[in-house]
Specification:
Blueprint: H1 2-28, H2 34-44, H3 49-94, E1 106-108, E2 141-143, E3 147-148, E4 155-157, E5 183-185, E6 190-208, E7 221-225, E8 235-239, E9 263-279, E10 288-290, E11 292-299
Antiparallel strand pairs: 1-2, 3-11, 4-6, 5-10, 6-9, 6-11, 7-8, 7-9
Amino acid sequence: MNDKSSTNETNSTDDERWIDAVLGEHARLGKNDDELLLGRIERELQAPARRKRKILWRLAAAACFFLVATTIFWNIRGSGRDSGRLATAESETRGLDTEESLKPGQVKLTTQFPPSVIEGSPRPVHMPQLVPAPKGPPTMAVPKETVLLSKGKPVTSSDDFPIIGDLSMITDGDKDAGEGYFIELLDGLQWVQIDLEQSATIHALWIWHFHSQRRVYNDVIVQVSNDPEFRKGVTTVYNNDYDNSAKMGVGKDHPYIESNYGLLLNAKGVSGRYVRLFSNGNTTNELNHYVEVEVFGVPKP
C-alpha cells in the first residue's frame, strides 16, 4: 500500500514537472490558445514517459527554431533601415551625380583608381552615421574647363618630418597601397597643406588617406584659403568631426570607411590657393596617413 502510494506520488510529481515544462515551451513559442493547450496536456498525460520526453524534445527544438528565426528577421529588418540611412549619408557626403544630371558645359569628373588591396583582418568600427565604403567609383559633374591642379605641387605639414615617407608623395600621382606609397605623421591632430601656386576656382577634391585596410580617420577637415596661415578668408569644404574634438566646430559631414576609391568632395567652386587637410588618428592606431590628394578646378588668370 505504501509502495503504491509512493509510486502514485512520484508519477504525480513527474506529470506536474512535465506540465510545467510544456507550459514553458508553449509560452516561448508565443501561442495563446488555452483550450488547445489544455487539450494537448490532457491527451499527452496518457502517453508513456518515453513519448512524453520525445514530444517535449520536439517542443524545445521548435522553440529554439522560433527564437533563431525571430532574431534573424529583426536583424535583417534593422539592417535594411541602417542601409537606407547609410546610403543617404553616403550620397550626401560624396555629392554624387549621374550622367543624366550633366548640364550643358559640364563633364563627368574621372581619375585613375589604384587596385583594391586589403591587408589584415578588418576591425569592427562603431561611429555615428558611418558611411560605408563605396561599391563602385564615385563621380561628380564639373565644368569642362576643370583640370588637375595639385599634381607635383609643394606640400607642407604641421609635422615637418614625417615618420614614414616624404610630403611630396601626397601630390606625386601614385595612389597604390602598401609600403613606399604613403606618408605617416605623428599622432594627434595634424594637417598637410597643398600650395597650388596660384589662386583657383576649386570644384572637387579627391582624398586617399590609407586604403589597404578598412579604417576610419578621425576629425577629417578640409579648408581652402588664399592665406597660407589660414587666419583669414578660410572656407571649410568638409568637416566630419561629430564631437568637436578638433576644437574647430562640430561638422555636418559623416565619418567614412577608407577604400581604393578615395573620398570625393564637392568644393562648390570655392576660391583659394591653399588647401589644408586635417586628421586626428584613425580606428586602427593614433597616427595620421596620406597616400594622395587631388585638387581639381580652374586656375584664375
